[in-house]
Amino acid sequence: MSNLMAGGLLSPTNAAVLSAFGARTSGATVHELGEGGGFSQAQVWRVATASGENFALRRTPADSFDRSRVEGLHRLLAWVHGRGVTQVPLPLAASHGGTLVLRDDAWWQLEPWMPGAPGTKGSPVRLAAAMHCLARFHLAAATFDGAGPQVKWYFTGFAPSRGLAERLGHIARWNAAECMVLRGLAQEYDWKELCPLAREILELYEHAAPAVAARLRLGSETPVPLQPCLRDVWHDHVLFTGDVVTGLIDAHACRSDTVATDLARLLGSLVGDDRQAWETALQAYQELRPLSLNERGLIELFDSSGTLLNGMTWLHSCLRLKHRFSHPQRILDRLDQILKRLRHLAERV
Question: What pTM does this model have?
Answer without folding.
Answer: 0.93
